[in-house]
Amino acid sequence: MQGQGVFSNNKAISWRVRVALGLLFVLALCTVWFTNNLLTDRFTQTTRNRAELRLALYSGNLLSELRQNAIVPQLLARDPSLIGALNSQDYSQSTQRLISFVEEIGAASLMLLDSDGRTVAATDRNRLGSSHRNAQYFVDAMRAAGTIFAVIPRESGGYSFTYSRRVQSGGDVLGVIAVEVDLQKFERAWAGISDAVLVTDSTGAIILATEPRWRGRTEAEALARQTPQSAIERAIQATADWTALPPDAYIQGEGVMRLETRIPFRGWRMASFTTYASVRERVNGVLALEIMGFAILLAVAFYFLSRRTAFRMALFQRESAELRALNARLQREIAERERVQETLAVAEQTLEQSSKLAALGEMSAAVSHELNQPLAAMKTYLAGARLLLTRNRKDEALSSFGRIDDLIERMGAITRQLKSYARKGADALSPVDMGAALASSLSMMEPQLRQRQVQITRILPDEPVFVMGDRMRIEQVMVNLLRNAIDATRSERNPQVDIILSAGQTATLTVRDNGPGIEDLDALFEPFYTTKQPGDGVGLGLAISSGIVNDLGGRLTARNGQGGGAVFEMQLPVLSRVDDESNNSQAAE
Hints:
Elements lengths: L1 H69 L1 H5 L3 H9 L5 H12 L3 E6 L4 E4 L13 H8 L4 E6 L5 E11 L2 E10 L2 H7 L5 E5 L5 E4 L9 H6 L6 H8 L9 E2 L6 E7 L6 E7 L1 H114 L3 H29 L7 E4 H11 L1 H7 L2 E5 L6 E4 L1 H18 L7 E8 L2 E8 L27 H11 L3 E6 L5 E8 L3 H12 L1
Parallel strand pairs: 12-14
Antiparallel strand pairs: 1-2, 1-5, 3-4, 4-5, 6-7, 6-10, 8-9, 9-10, 11-13, 14-15, 15-17, 16-17
Protein name: histidine kinase
GO molecular function, one term: ATP binding
Catalytic activity: ATP + protein L-histidine = ADP + protein N-phospho-L-histidine
């Protein structure tokens, strides 16, 4: 009673501890969820403000560079030295003059073209002598009176941005001054940040971008392409389908913020993609601290629980000694039971052989009667042969000797059946033809069948039925079933025994008689149970037969038929054709 009270008290405390731990876990989840939402909103707004400020700075720098270079062609078109060089066609000092301007202006390159579009002076000496007659900036500058801006695709990729203006003296057009603006320096500067930036012209084509493969495409086409492993890749993955996602997408910590601004220059626009990686890092840092705090609380709680568990383990150790002693007793009982089972197995094997010898004794009288008939016939044939020889009728005497030889063969077959039946079955299993074993069993029971005049009906399949087993033991079971069926029909006027052999998933031998049936089906296979008169049987035949069939992987069953009589069924695993052929080939070898 005291142990039960302690157990009930421990159970109540355990439930309270579980409830407290559950509440602590729920509190931790709520705190982390609330903190995550609050800090995500706050840090996201901060990131948006920084991205807007950065985008305004980028667009302002780009516009300043364009405006600074827009006035250069107008100044150079009025330079007296360049005008004089075009008039006199003396360009020996023109290239050096342009180089000095580049250092002051900061442009990418300067070129002086004559009226035929040929480069007569350039800061890049590799361009001297090249023709630009069909270039857009040359053709438009020759036609227009003002400064022309042209965006020209490069063969190596990207674009060149060029201001051009015609140089004229009086009313004559002498040539064109072209100023290339270095906007690629902004791309190189943007590539060092965590944002992805692109600039589109009035047609929507990307002319500047941190990703080179975006240039020349629309924004939708660029975002649909596969990108390298960088901040640009995250931007493209989260914003690949603008029809399905809002401009500000936040998906599983890989969201991207898209911002856009208008550049007051020829309809240009600038867009940037800013990842939330910094937001997640800052939020996760705070969440990690909170989770660590709750983990410490849980560790303290588990520490006290472990102390209680250690106390309970001390109580259980006192009981473990009794359990070990009980386990030792159980092991001794198991060992004793195993020895008894081995003894029973030996006794069962001895009883099985004894039953076979007892059945052999019962059959010896009928078999001796069967042997007396050939012996008597042999005596008659020998007397007749002697008489025929005295009368010199050798052919008829030889015929008599042939009949005597047949009788000897029959006697030998009878003795061989007795010897094989009395021999103990081998342990090795081999393919057994059930039809042949049944025929041998019926031949062995032939004297009793002829003495009783029992009608035997056999139904066999067209194909042989093979099982894996010991033929001698299978024939022993068949003989026992046939003997019981014959004995059960002693009181019948027209005794009849039906034998049916069938093959399906198992090989089934059915023995049905028209006797009175079975009274006690439950005790039928028990050792020493018999319904025969004293001296007719000891009640071991069916018990041993059931053990043989079980050893071969089958089962032996009995029931009463619908029209009366007993029905015994022996079911054994059927041997497949493949196994038959392999076994036959091995036997042939």
